Amino acid sequence: MELNQKELQRIKVIENAVEGRIPVAKAGELLGLSERQVKRLKRRYQATTVEWVRHGNIGRRRAWALKQRVRRKIVNLARTKYAGFNDTHLCEKLAEEEGVIVSRETVRRVLRGAGIASPQKRRAKKYRTRRERRSRMGGDGVGRCEPARLAGGTRPGDDAAGFPG
Question: Contact 123/110 with Cβ under 8 angstroms?
Answer without folding.
Answer: no
